[in-house]
Amino acid sequence: MKPVLLHKLHQVLKILNKVPFRQSLLAGTIILLLLIYPYPGATQGNQSKKTLQVATKVIPPFVFQDKDKLSGFSIDLWRSIANEMGADFKFTVYPTVPDVLDEVEQNKVDLGIAAISITAERQKKFDFSLPMFAGGLQIMVRSSESKNNIFPNLLQTFFSPTLLQLVGIALALVVIAAHIIWLFERHHQEAMISKSYFPGIFKASWWAAATLATQADEMPKGPLGRMIAIIWMFIGVIFVAYFTATVTTAMTVQQLQGDIRGIEDLPGRVVVTTAGSTASEFLRQQKIKAVEVAGIENAYDTLLRNQADALVFDSPVLLYYTANEGKNKVEIVGSIFQEENYGIVLPNNSPYRRQINSALLTIKENGIYRTLYEKWFDVKKA
Ligand code: GLU
Fold first, then answer.
1. How confident is the model at residue 355 (pLDDT cuts 50, 70, 90)?
2. How many domains are contained in the chain?
3. Is 318 in the pocket of ligand 1 (CB under 6 A)?
4. Residue 278 C-alpha to ligand 1 middle, in angstroms?
């Protein structure tokens, strides 16, 4: 009981000693009323009626912003929590998670909610609610990377400097072989080649090229010509073997380079993520170089415009994009390689943490959480 109340009670009792029964009955009623009257400032009601300042940031599907209207899983979740607490609140949108954290740290807002990962590092400076969503980091690539690219890859192989060089050597060899064969064959009576230079060399070149690539359909008639033909056929076998090996190697290397299946494939590739995110911190720790852009929309653009080979970010955010806007354009590869939970961030020793946690637990127990989850992460829609 408040000291003021005790004092009042004492005073009343003192008076009571001096007054007759009827008045004392009246006084007793007054005392009783005084005791049960909600003393201003004595209840929690006042505290929860304060308008809570809530910081957030746009991150679909957790927070969407359409002009002044906010929606998304985290927005709905906070509305339900506040409703459960009987609290009034006001949202303010900040550009990045570090901005939200700054506001919370400087006590300019009462809490932050979006897709904010609970990390050991952040835990040092802030209080977090119980986890409100389980996720982690994953990799996204352009979907054409693995499927539609066979044709361009072949073209690329055929026009690669190594192959062009090989074709050049083959042409030179064919011309040389054609001259030798023409020189030895042209005097033969039933020669397969004409005596005069031009028709003769054309025919001999055709023969040399055909022999190199496949099989000769005609054979020189003179003994010397035949000797040369045999040598030429051996050169053909070796050349075809060498050619096949070169093309196979080139294509295998290309395929290996085109394949990103997990975190171990990332070093040496151009990776994009957003500045200040837990993904950028993870990549730094793994010593994987990454292009850091502002906002996830820019990261999607960078990937789609071929300026990056892979995007590393929060799995639930990537999954939502893959199932909606990014459908047929991007795909997720590998499983989650770093688990993370989202939480509501509060200043250290926040008086609201307990209330928020019990509201969150109630919402999880009474089915509201599930309804919200199904609304924003409807698997059937995906
Ligand atoms: N979950 C990440 C973080 O807390 C990224 C969230 C975001 O960029 O909105 O840093």
1. very high
2. 4
3. no
4. 6
